[in-house]
Amino acid sequence: MQIDRAQTLAPAALHEPRNPGLPLDLDWVRRVQANTSAIERRAATLPGRRSVKKDWQAAWLCRAISVIDLTTLSGDDTEGRVRRLCAKARQPVSPEILETLGMTGLTVGAVCVYHDMVPAAVAALRGTDLPVAAVSTGFPAGLSPFHLRIQEIRESVAAGAREIDIVISRRHVLTGNWQALYDEMREMREACGEAHVKAILATGELGTLRNVARASLVCMMGGADFIKTSTGKESVNATLPVTLTMIRAIRDYHDATGIRVGYKPAGGISKAKDALNHLALVKDELGDRWLRPDLLRFGASSLLGDIERQLEHHVTGAYSASWRHALA
Questions:
Q1: Which sign, positive or negative, has the C-alpha torsion 121, 76, 275, 251?
Q2: How much is the pTM?
Q3: Is the pLDDT of residue 252 over 60?
Q4: What is the mean pLDDT of the chain?
Q5: 34-321 — its CATH code?
Q6: What is the dihedral of CA 242, 248, 250, 255, to 10 degrees?
Q7: How far apart are CA 132 and CA 110, in angstroms?
Q8: What's the rounded Cα separation, in Å, for the pair 154 and 157?
Q9: How many Cβ atoms are within 10 Å of 180's Cβ, its own excluded?
Q10: Strand positions, DSSP E, the chain
Q11: Residue 317's pLDDT is what?
Q12: Is the model's pLDDT at 1 over the cut of 50?
């Protein structure tokens, strides 16, 4: 039951060069369109056309684990919960299952927490190369005073966060104020310093796929290292049509500049089959290079438990109870 480790595992460290951004090109932004019916049709046919079974499925599920940002963003978070989450991040699947699969060294991509929990997460992950990601800038609404949002970024970086998930001001997209969105993104990128920045678009609140595509492009011009679908707090989060729209914007940006920008679907991806569908779409549209942790992340909390159940079924032929795979 050996699976191909070389094609499955990837180091958690970030190796892709940073996105330096570009001057805002409003002509390019205004040319961007999105054929909603065609995008939805393409997304709807994917699950029936792309399926993997047996050892191939196990390999793809291990790949999915390697790109998870294991997340806890609750008002009742405690340092103890974060430490337990970090232990799960370091050992996401039972050693017995990994040994049967012929795999070692599998970890998630990062641990994502609120600013107050950054020191606890950094301490719990000491000795590993797993980065801590902090949600900042008045997450999830992003409506706190701008100077406070910038200061929050700086404090999270000072506390040891190597990645910062920022939220954009949705009103700039809804009113077509692309200059304001660009300026905001540039200042947030600067405040992050050496930390990688993921721009959360909150796509469920942007109204149209064209807005999603244009906002994606402007954030990449502003220097975002990743573009991310959602905070996970909106009523609509990561969907396949949104994923298709955003990764095509990433592809267009790469074709024009040679710069690779990462993608992070977040919110609503709780089942193994959801992860497989998103992985297949990314592979189809962007290629294998984007299936590594430095260019792809899943923002998720419960996804890992379902994947672990699927891997146990692959090894033993029986499904285990979900409570046996608690995260924290």
A1: negative
A2: 0.93
A3: yes
A4: 92
A5: 3.20.20.70
A6: -170
A7: 6
A8: 5
A9: 15
A10: 68-71, 110-114, 132-135, 163-167, 196-200, 226-228, 262-264, 298-300
A11: 86
A12: no
Following CA atoms 232, 233, 238, 242 in sequence, which dihedral angle do they give, to the nearest 10 degrees?
-130
The one-letter amino acid at 258: G
Which tens digit of pLDDT belongs to each residue from 291-302?
Answer: 999 999 999 988
Report the alpha-carbon distance of residue 278 to residue 112 in Å, rounded: 20
DSSP string, 170-223: HHHHHTT-HHHHHHHHHHHHHHHTTSEEEEE--GGGS-SHHHHHHHHHHHHHTT
Residue 166 dihedral angles phi and psi, to the nearest 5°? -100, 155
Higher-confidence residue: 16 or 44? 44
Residues carrying an active site annotation = 165, 228, 264
- Considering only CA atoms, which of 69, 61, 51, 52 is closest in space to residue 101? 61
- What are the residue boundaries of the structural domains of the chain, listed by start? 34-321
Q: Per the structure block, which two tokens stand in for 147?
A: 């100077």
* 225/127 Cα distance (integer angstroms): 25
User: For residue 50, what pLDDT band results from cuts at 50, 70 and 90?
Assistant: low
Residue among 109, 117, 114 nearest 226 (CA) = 109
